[in-house]
Specification:
6-stranded antiparallel sheet, 2 helices, SH3 type barrels, 89 residues, alpha+beta
Length: 89
């Protein structure tokens, strides 16, 4: 896992447009798990475009610190359908 925010941003910049599974801790034992793709990266945050589901947000944003503190875990899908976990445990 990357040890600095700049390293995390660099890795995510190289993953733009890739399919992923997002697992995020929402507090008080609530964890969300959704799929989508990495849409955009900004200096302080990144944006994930989520797959369409009823009554849910279509886009979510998190800071790079969320990955560093293991609040958010991203699992990217490679070209062969295998998972590449990044962040979290």
């Amino acid at each position: 896992m990357a040890k600095q925010l700049s390293e995390i941003k660099t890795v995510l910049d190289n993953q733009l447009g890739r399919r992923l599974t997002l697992k995020a801790n929402s507090g008080r034992r609530k964890t969300i798990e959704r799929s989508g793709f990495l849409a955009e990266t900004y200096p302080s945050v990144f944006v994930v475009q989520l797959d369409q589901q009823e009554d849910t947000f279509q886009r979510v944003s998190y800071s790079y610190a969320d990955i560093l503190t293991e609040t958010v875990e991203l699992t990217f899908l490679d070209e062969h359908g295998s998972d590449i976990a990044w962040g979290g445990q």
